[in-house]
Write the structure tokens for this entry.
Amino acid sequence: MALPWGEYTFTCTDCHGDGNVQYVQAVVDEIGDETDEAELVWGKCEDCRGEGTVSVASIYRALAEHAKREAYPEAVEQAHADFATLNSGEVPQPRTEAQALKSR
Ligand SMILES: [Zn+2]
């Protein structure tokens, strides 16, 4: 079922429809270094890209991204396995001929 464009838009929950969000940012000194001080600044809401509303289309995009990950579980698993190998500091070694014969 195709939804009519613009009919299903929701007020952004991040900025409450304002399009801008206030956040804490480190104060930068004259030479561009971050200081220990922080200030409240206004910035464009990233959730709705400053529009104040979220449409169904963007929700669909998020769901499609999720579905893609679900569709390739073995790739995610392999990545996890590779990461675990890297973290253990061990390099997988090829089995010697003797070991290969024993396991037959
Ligand atoms: Zn927003």
The chain has one domain: 9-89. Residues 61 and 67 are 10 Å apart (CA to CA). The chain has a mean pLDDT of 81.
